[in-house]
Amino acid sequence: MKSSPSPAASSAPPAGPRRRARVAEPDTVSRVMHLLLFIGAAMILAVWAMELHEGVINPWDRWMQPLLALVVGGAAVLMVWRPTLDPVLRPLPVLSFNLYLIVTLHMTLLYGSGPQQWYQTLTALYWVPLAYGCGFVFLRQRMALLVCTFTATGIFLPMLVWWQRGQLPAWTHEHGPLLVIVAMSHVMYVLLLWAVIKLRDSHADARDSAERMRTLAATDVLTGLPNRRSMLDTLATALAESRRSGQPLTIALVDVDHFKAVNDQHGHAQGDAVLMQIGACMRAQLRAVDGLARWGGEEFLICATATPLAAAVELAERVRVAVSACPMPHGEQVTISLGLTPCEPGDDVDTLLQRADHALYEAKARGRNRSVTRTREQERSDAARPASMATQGLTTP
């Protein structure tokens, strides 16, 4: 006899596709971020090589850009090599890139001159919105806002001071308020990114809430098993698949014997605990492909897909024996009766359930704690017999 595991171990539903998707999601995000870091390091080296070849590179960029590429690429390598370091290292490339832009802009404005100063200043300003975007991609929202605020302040506050002192190059203001407009555009970049992240998070929250509602609508609150509505959908799908592929399908309607006596003698709280234990015990005996739902009250329904009747009978007997041997919260033995029926040509959900219900009635009429099978041929034979003969000996004790 196969012993039944504890409720804590057996009541947890098997991980479904949605659960697997949630587990895999962080890995996908990490892989994308690692790829972005490797591409970023390669792009920095490409810019360094092009500017070096064209002779337009600043003296400090000759070593700052390779160092930045080393930091960004090295962080990516460490994240891949040691995934546990991912949360710790993720801010490093973002802060390094933003700090580099601040430093190179100020160095260019203070120590550059001529067309090279103009070129280096504008190219650095081109990259700043990317720095904001990296902040919101790699960091949490609050941290990203802080980093972006630090970057924008670090860039434009010194410029404002130098402008008031007349220390900025003439080209930055003689043809119009260039730096003011650039600063305003950067504020809008940050606000737009923040709005996008807020909308994304709001959409994700709404999606998760809808998913929770769908799960609750399809789950029995007491046992954690699928409920009647969910099982009806499962039955319809299994029936359609059986018709399409020709695979056998058998269902079993399960009823807890003398359950009213449990509630009357021990209270509804103990009755609920018994139902939870029975659900857990049955779930432990079934295969992963088998469906189990609380059908209503003290009834459960088993949907055994790709299972011929003979194998389903063995399965039902294993479940019945396991439940009768399972220790119950109120300290007394509890048994179940099962009514089985196979899917036959021309069946729909209603006819399948009707035969299973007749089989369950017969199991209880024969003394309970047993399983009974009904086929369409038996239904026809009973219909052809006189009512007195068909019901003879089936009076429920």
Task: Give an overview of the whole structure.
The chain is α+β, with helices and mostly antiparallel strands. It folds into two domains: 17-215, no CATH class; 224-390, Reverse transcriptase/Diguanylate cyclase domain (Alpha-Beta Plaits, 2-Layer Sandwich). The protein has helices at 7-10, 17-54, 61-81, 86-89, 91-111, 114-138, 141-164, 178-217, 228-245, 259-266, 268-285, 309-325, 349-365, 376-384, 387-390, and strands at 249-256, 291-296, 299-305, 336-342, 371-373. The radius of gyration is 35 Å and the shape is rod-shaped. Mean pLDDT is 84; it is low at 1-25 and 389-397. Residues 1-13 have a biased composition (Low complexity). This is diguanylate cyclase.
Strand content range: 5-15%
Find the count of extended strands (DSSP E, 2+ residues): 5
Q: Quote the distance from N terminus to C terminus.
A: 29 Å
* Uncertain residue segments: 1-25, 389-397
Global mean pLDDT: 84
Shape: rod-shaped
What pattern of helices and strands is seen along the backbone?
A: HHHHHHHHHEHHEEHEHEHH
Largest sheet: 5 strands, mixed
Strand order of the largest sheet: 2-3-1-4-5
Percent range of helical residues: 55-70%
Tell me the structural class. Answer: alpha+beta
Number of helices: 15
- Our Rg estimate from Cα atoms comes to 35 Å
Q: How many separate domains?
A: 2
Protein traits:
disordered N terminus; Alpha-Beta Plaits; 397 residues; rod-shaped; alpha+beta
